[in-house]
Specification:
Helix content is 27%, strand content 22%. By secondary structure, the chain is of the alpha+beta class. It has a 7-stranded mixed β-sheet, sandwiched between helices. A hairpin with a 2-residue loop joins strand 3 and strand 4. Helix 2 packs across helix 3. The protein is globular and about 40 Å long. The two termini are 25 Å apart.
Length: 189
């Protein structure tokens, strides 16, 4: 199973305008609009420079959800990721525990002076699925991107990952029939 084939983990639709008005949200990157008592204890925030330790834990949790091997990332690598305006790392925390994560990349367009955001991975810890965590992560991305003038977000999901497809549809995503090709060059020994 690859990174594109997990419910609450990965990716498949173009997410267009959303129902909440951007003006309803302040400049903070933490959204607290869930009213459920259990959900109010969950912090969802964009990770930025200085959050290297939280990012390392988030990325390790995501790799574990995908059952993929991962290498420990050096602080300098994490710092470069987190200081980049084009990289999005959004994490959900219950206390100090990482329970969800989303990574995405800003893609500058060439047909117009705008950008879109590509959601690369979305993962929720197995014990916290079906609790709205994935929806909160995606919502945080949508609101924060809109505050930066980016209104179009897209995500790729395997056609046989019914759970992921259903999730993105419930988030007002519109499916687009495309075929994605991957190219991997052999690595030098």
């Amino acid at each position: 199973m690859n990174q594109f084939s997990h419910i609450c983990s990965s990716n498949s639709h173009h997410v267009g305008p959303f129902s909440e008005s951007v003006e309803n949200f302040g400049p903070t990157s933490t959204v607290h609009w869930w009213h459920d008592r259990a959900m109010s204890d969950v912090e969802v925030t964009r990770l930025v420079r200085g959050d290297e330790a939280r990012a390392a834990r988030t990325f390790a949790m995501m790799a574990a959800v995908f059952e993929e091997p991962s290498d420990p990332l050096e602080d300098s690598y994490l710092n470069n990721l987190l200081r980049s305006d084009s990289f999005w790392a959004i994490a959900a925390f219950l206390g100090s525990d990482v329970i969800g994560g989303l990574t995405a990349h800003t893609v500058p367009l060439t047909r117009t002076a705008q950008s879109e955001v590509f959601v690369y991975d979305l993962a929720v810890h197995h014990e916290h699925r079906r609790q709205g965590i994935a929806a909160r992560l995606l919502h945080e991305l949508r609101v924060t991107a809109a505050l930066e003038g980016i209104y179009d977000i897209f995500v790729v999901a395997d056609n046989d990952d019914v759970g992921a497809l259903d999730f993105y549809r419930t988030q007002e995503g519109t499916g687009t029939p495309v075929t994605m090709f991957s190219f991997t060059e052999p690595r030098a020994s």
